[in-house]
Design brief:
mainly alpha, 74% helix, single chain
Length: 197
């Protein structure tokens, strides 16, 4: 399911080629996308890719979620929504509120431990700080930047998170992390050249 989640950069590049009227050379773009996804497979391991799923519904939902995120990102550019009208962080806040309402309706909050002030601080700090800023800057990037390059560079997100987890929690990094990063970097370079005239 993790690998299906990482298909959203592929969708972004493909949808941007279809929906956005920009001059894009197909071969560098397609090669860059394939190299980027191959880098993810090597960095994360191919066990999830080769294993037959027992329950297909979560995989379908993961694939649909990645596709919808790519549609949202590309349509921000396609519809030429002004940069000052940022809505990504607001949409995620609304989704969190809806998820909380569903959990409350189903009674899933009853067995949770009491939320301490320190935990509440870190939740607010993460939502307003790194996460909120990341989605705010992402929205600016997809509205102004090279979509093929942005989509391919997005493959570095799981690489960066793996490195941070390894450093902060002292977990060993997998042997495929470095060659996977090299493939992603090569894919980003090719994707960046795909829009050059």
């Amino acid at each position: 399911m993790n690998l299906l989640n990482y298909l959203w950069p592929v969708w972004i590049v493909l949808l941007s080629a279809i929906l956005i009227r920009e001059k894009i050379r197909f071969f560098p773009m397609a090669t860059g996308v394939l190299l980027g996804f191959s880098g993810i497979v090597i960095a994360r391991g191919d066990t999830d890719l080769l294993r037959i799923p027992e329950a297909p519904i979560p995989l379908v939902l993961a694939l649909l979620g990645g596709f919808l995120w790519a549609c949202y990102s590309v349509l921000l550019r396609r519809w030429r929504i002004p940069e000052e009208q940022g809505g990504t962080a607001l949409h995620f806040s609304l989704c969190a509120v809806m998820a909380a309402l569903v959990a409350t309706f189903r009674g899933e909050w009853q067995n949770l431990p009491a939320v301490r002030a320190e935990a509440l601080f870190w939740v607010l700090f993460g939502g307003i700080g790194p996460v909120g800023l990341a989605y705010h800057w992402w929205e600016i990037g997809v509205k102004r930047g090279n979509m093929a390059l942005i989509g391919t560079l997005a493959y570095f997100i799981p690489i960066g998170s793996t490195v941070l987890i390894s450093l902060l929690f002292r977990e060993s990094m997998g042997p495929g992390l470095i060659p996977g990063s090299v493939l992603i970097a090569g894919g980003a370079w090719l994707a960046g050249r795909s829009s050059s005239v």
